[in-house]
Specification:
This protein has 470 residues and is α/β, with parallel strands linked by helices. It has three domains: 133 residues, Periplasmic binding protein-like II (D-Maltodextrin-Binding Protein, domain 2), CATH 3.40.190.10; 88 residues, Dipeptide-binding Protein, domain 1 (Alpha-Beta Complex); 202 residues, Roll (Dipeptide-binding Protein, domain 3), CATH 3.10.105. 29% of the residues lie in helices and 22% in strands. The chain is built from twelve helices and 16 strands. Helix 7 packs antiparallel against helix 8 and helix 11 packs antiparallel against helix 12. The two termini are 45 Å apart. 32% of the residues are buried.
Length: 470
Amino acid sequence: MRSHHKITAAVAVLLSLVIAAEVSFARGRVARWEVLVNTLPQRISTQEAHINTVYYALRQTHEPVLRKDDGQNYTSRILKYWAHDLGYLRYTFCPVIDLKFDGNRGFSAGYFRDHILRITEKYSQNFDLTTEGDCSIVSFSSPHKSYLDYLTLVENAPTLTSEGESDIGLGPFYVAEVQKEKIVLLRKKPVRNGYSEVVLHLYKDVGDPMLQNRNVSDFNLIPAVDVPEWVKKEYLSFDNVELKSGNLIINHPDLKARQLIRNCLDVDRFRRAYAPRKKDFLDLQTILPLGLLGAQPGLPQQNCESRMFNVLLSTPIVFYNNRDDNEDQLKGLAEDFKKRTGVPLTIAKYPADKIAAIKRQRPRPFNLIVIVIDAVTPNYEAFFDPFLDVSGYHDFDTSILRELREKLGKTESPELKLGIVKRMLAVLERQNAVLTLYQINGRLYYPKDIKNIEVGRGFLQYPEVADFRW
């Protein structure tokens, strides 16, 4: 007679082998979320949250103090209790203290107190911080309703920072690997029917073999015209007008040269040369996309006068081009520009993955470069940050913008905010620092086997992969 215990053990071993095979299969084919991105940073840091690739990763690795997923109501995954008074003067935050950044470092009431102190000091100098047990209490002398939105920003999420290493947050993933052509995020705790790994691959150009890789889940961070036909046929798709503007950064040391470029480089001619396969453009006058109060539809106002053609260049005008499908079109554009103005325009081919590095050079080796500025919520600050930060795109003085940006962050009134924004836009125009090309619009594509995509949730282009189930 065979032992019942032996039979039970054998069944258990067989069952474990089946489960292991299923998990292995999932990890190989299903449980890895793969993304194509235009640029890869050297590290993932909340200080670089304005870069879309970094923001995409931070959405997986970091958890903000508050959330506003439906665009209206605030929730939190790291606070067991939070509240504010009716006058928006006093805020109480009680953290969940059994959370962990990693296996060795936990989240604590002491850490949260230090964190809320640090980020609130960036928001306002006029506040008091006290504690009651595990809870931190922030008190202002005047109403600060916008403080809630400030706490939803991923750049203000709790984080551990090490020199040269990627930041560690309270999100479900951590940065496991940073290479030249890919970044790997791994899940801290496995879940059933969910993704255990996120891989960000550097997208090179229209000839990249990754465009035909059926394991890639997300093509939404590459140019829309490069999304392969098989994705358009096989994936779910959603129309999407985004809070994104495509802009030509003008970084020449001579103001007169910038004035010539800003006024005499025809917007429609340039954008069709730069993106020859894009058929339709949504016109936009400034860096602010439609969806933000103060944004203006239509082409930027340009006034090209022959007197501008007499500019004496201290350095050549060099445009850094990161695309491979537009060389002939840009060559023709440069020839026309020189014929019309007498000013030569040099087109330099530069890989997209090098852009982050050259931004840190002083002076920067480019005069013109196309960038996309974006935000996931109607947030003015995000659209001005590329003109202020030390890792931005300009070598000339922008201190007046920094002063206005500081005022903007401390202003509660929508009317006053709009007034400051208009002053900042006027500074960019006087400095001839940027020429807006268009607002980004198009379609987003996601695999059909995801069961819980919520269209209209607010972050569809920067999804939280941990929430997806298949």
